[in-house]
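Can anyone check this?
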Amino acid sequence: MLTGNEFFIVLKLVSGEDVMAVLSAEDDEYIELTSPMCIRTHPILNAGREQVTAVPLCPFSEENKYVLHKRNVMFIKKLHYAFIPHYKKIVADQEKTATFKPTEQSQQVEEDLKKRIDMLKSLLNETDEDTDYETKVFIKGNDTIN
C-alpha cells in the first residue's frame, strides 16, 4: 500500500520498457523497486493521438518488490509530480484485481471444469492415475484494452 511519502521514479530498461515505480533501496550495483508498472503507448491513428496504458512489470507474480541490476537500466529519473496520483491509482487498482478471493461463481466454474475434464477422460478411457491434477485458480480480469 502506497502512503505518498515514497520516492516515485520513472526508468528505462535496456530491453526498452519504460517503468514507473517506487525506488525502495539502492546501492552501487542494484536497485529495489516496489510496484513497478510498465508504461505502454498505443497510437490511435484515426484520432491522431496516443493511448497510454500501464501493466505490472510481472503480472503473474505475487510479489510487488523487484531487485534489478543497474546494468539493466538505461536511466532513472524522478517521476513528474503530475503523474504521481495516476501511478498511485494504477497500483491501487492492480492490488484490488490481483487479490484472489474464491467466490461462489469461481467455485462453480471450477466444478464445471472438473466435470468436463472427467467427461473427456471417460471418452478417452483415462483414469485419475493417468493425470496429475493441480489446483486451478480463476483470476477475474479487468477491462484494460492492450
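Reply from J.R.: I decoded it. The longest helix spans residues 104-123.
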